[in-house]
Design brief:
alpha/beta, Immunoglobulin-like, 29 strands, about 675 residues, eight-stranded parallel β-barrel
């Protein structure tokens, strides 16, 4: 880093407006920030700790709303921020206040953290949002750090695991590692801990091909939660779309993320990031001014018709305006950065319907989706939509185009209801087993369009769906008002933990049945971290603020009877050729046939039998032997097998789920079980 005893001087001959952010160019750094309505932008340079502001340097040039300048000798490690001048006219959507230090939206690494103080607001707390606050927010703000993006990737290549072979493990960086007895204590809760051999080996043993990480982008711990001695554990409160969350880094340096990704790739495991481009941590017009609001509120956010208020389709107070070309560019630049520089393999888009919000509402051919589809870098990676938001017309399961896959909450709800023995579920569980074609078999979409899950971070864990009939969210401090009540759960005889061996056995049976439904269905299977070992959150179905043992995986309590079942199911899915890219249908494509337990085809009357709990599905995969899957959500039963010899490969009623028995005739079925057979 250069000596800053004298003010650095911009070099106009090397300045570039086409590269946003703080880009180290080898001998100096180019700074560029988009603000269409600003009148002046000041670059603020700080000491190494980010505590002392050394210089305020007006960026000398502006083109197309991009303010820019090149500083020779400014090296990686330099700490910086911005102050942006312009009209303070909240009634017109403008909230410029140069007293507020602003984080660069393109910052790749952060120094410091948010210290909650009233000075972080652009208006004066205690007055309305039309007032103007003159206090300096810099002492309470994290700052950006100039970085050198070079890294030795050891000639690695992207894995590009086919969707049909993909098994997703939704996980939290801290939650997976914080209580792991074999992860060194000083690495627990970090990327370095996540990429240790004990964690990676576990994922390999259970057949995981992709780890999907809850948000790792830098996020804010909401003031509301901090004052209640809680925290934003999940991370759906983004502060920066380029910088990783500093507490997940042992040294604070982004190379730790790269090192972790490199280790996962060497183990054959892809890395998918859960990204939150629908909103930021700045809240509504009554929220704080940390970055986007102070840079150019009217450009970065959707505003209400009166321009003073935010337009909110996310339930967080604001909505990012991705229809704006420069905001869209920022999102696309972020995605490409994480793919090309950080080597991630895909993204899960939180509240993706918001990203399709245009002037007329949700548009499946909106600017964001079309930008993704035509992008030569992004169109070939894994893209997963959470296909809803809280706005009008926001529920869009099945409403996206290729190459997007979608979280399928219909699969979750119907699977839970079927195994809970709700009446009349045969038709819907049949739909889920063959990939939910009603939702996804259109617009040239493949049979891998549905991401099938029964539990995710939001809601009960899988074990809690069989252990609690009601949510238990008292620890959240909202008197149980938070979290939804539509859990489709059943405690099977005792609310919470129990010493009753019969109840425990029933819970294991049902959990295995639901896991088998996930892995034996067409589509892409996903499990929540910990569901493979019976992890509980004590009945909390909204643990977003629980950075403690409620959310951290209990490795010491791991159940081998469930973990081994998952390993057997993923192995069978891989070896049998079960997963197909095409929906059942025309000649040359896989064929699906439905069987009654008496051994013949299902009739209309059979499908209408609300008390029938057993169903057989025969699949003829392309280039693989026939597969017969039988689900039994009821009591002990029998199934008359189609003529010939079959090999019993999976039986979730057995202690050892993996089998290799030759069977024929009438097959006994254990209660609450799934079997899978192949033609001998």
């Amino acid at each position: 880093m250069r000596d800053l005893t004298t003010p650095p001087i911009f070099d106009a001959t090397q300045a570039r407006s086409d590269i946003l952010g703080a880009e180290f160019m080898g001998e100096g750094t180019n700074f560029a920030l988009y603000s269409d309505h600003a009148t002046k932008v000041e670059l603020c340079l700080f000491d190494d700790e980010g505590q002392e502001e050394l210089y305020r340097l007006p960026l000398p040039d502006m083109e197309g709303g991009i303010w820019f300048g090149y500083l020779p000798d400014i090296m990686p490690g330099q700490v910086y921020g911005y102050r942006v001048h312009g009209p303070y006219e909240p009634e017109n959507g403008h909230r410029f206040n140069p007293n507020k230090l602003l984080l660069d939206p393109y910052a790749r690494e952060l120094r410091g953290e948010i210290i909650w103080d009233d000075a972080l607001h652009g208006y004066t707390i205690g007055e309305d949002d039309l007032s103007f606050d003159e206090r300096d927010s810099a002492p309470f703000m994290p700052k950006g750090v100039v970085v050198d993006s070079r890294f030795d990737w050891d000639t690695e290549r992207a894995l590009r695991t086919p969707w049909a072979d993909t098994v997703i493990y939704e996980a939290h960086v801290k939650g997976v590692t914080k209580r792991h007895p074999d992860v060194p204590e000083d690495l627990q809760g970090t990327f370095r801990g996540l990429a240790t051999e004990p964690v990676i080996s576990h994922l390999q043993k259970i057949g995981v091909t992709a780890i999907e990480l809850l948000p790792i982008h830098a996020f804010a711990n909401d003031r509301y939660l901090v004052e209640k001695d809680l925290s934003n554990y999940w991370g759906y409160s983004t502060l920066s779309f380029f910088a990783p969350h500093t507490p997940y880094l042992k040294t604070g340096q982004i190379r730790e993320v790269k090192e972790a990704i490199r280790k996962f790739h060497k183990a054959g495991i892809e890395v998918i990031l859960d990204v939150v481009f629908n909103h930021t941590c700045e809240g509504s017009e009554l929220g704080q001014t940390l970055s986007f609001r102070g840079i150019d509120n009217a450009s970065y956010y959707l505003l209400a018709d009166d321009r003073r208020h935010s337009f909110d389709t996310t339930g967080t107070g604001n909505t990012l305006n991705v229809a704006h070309p420069m905001v869209l560019r920022m999102v696309m630049d972020s995605l490409r950065y994480w793919v090309q520089v950080m080597h991630v393999d895909g993204f899960r888009f939180d509240l993706a319907s918001t990203l399709g919000r245009e002037s007329e509402g949700f548009e499946r051919d909106g600017s964001f989706f079309n930008a993704i589809r035509q992008d030569p870098v992004l169109s070939g990676i894994k893209l997963i939509a959470e296909p809803w938001d809280i706005g009008e017309g926001g529920y869009q399961v099945g409403g996206y185009r290729w190459p997007f896959r979608e979280w399928n909450d219909k699969f979750r709800d119907d699977t839970r209801a079927f195994w809970r023995r709700d009446s009349g579920q045969l038709g819907v569980i049949a739909e889920r087993l063959v990939g939910s074609p009603v939702q996804f078999n259109h617009s040239h979409r493949p049979a891998t369009s549905s991401v099938n899950f029964v539990a995710a971070h939001d809601g009960f864990t899988l074990w809690d769906t069989v252990s609690y009939s009601d949510k238990h969210n008292d620890a959240n401090g909202e008197d149980g008002r938070d979290g939804h009540d539509h859990n489709l759960s059943d405690n099977l005889g005792a609310e919470g933990p129990t010493d009753d061996a019969g109840i425990d056995t029933a819970r294991v049976r049902r959990v295995r049945g639901m896991l088998a439904t996930i892995f034996l269905s067409q589509g892409v299977p996903m499990i929540l971290a910990g569901d493979e070992m019976g992890n509980s959150q004590d009945g909390n179905n909204n643990a977003y603020c629980q950075d403690n043992e409620i959310s951290w995986l209990d490795w010491d309590g791991a159940r081998a009877d469930i973990r081994d079942a998952v390993a057997a199911l993923t192995a069978f899915r891989k070896d049998s050729g079960l997963a197909q890219t095409h929906f059942s249908g025309p000649e040359g494509q896989p064929v699906a046939r439905w069987f009654h337990p008496r051994g013949d085809a299902m009739t209309d009357a059979d499908w209408s039998d609300g008390e029938l709990r057993i169903l057989g599905l025969m699949l003829q995969p392309t280039d693989a032997p026939e597969i017969l899957i039988i689900v039994n959500a009821g009591d002990d039963g029998e199934f008359a097998l189609p003529e010939g010899d079959w090999t019993l490969r999976i039986d979730t009623a057995r202690d050892d789920v993996a089998c290799m028995d030759t069977v024929s005739g009438v097959l006994p079925l254990g209660w609450q079980s799934v079997v899978a057979l192949t033609r001998a």
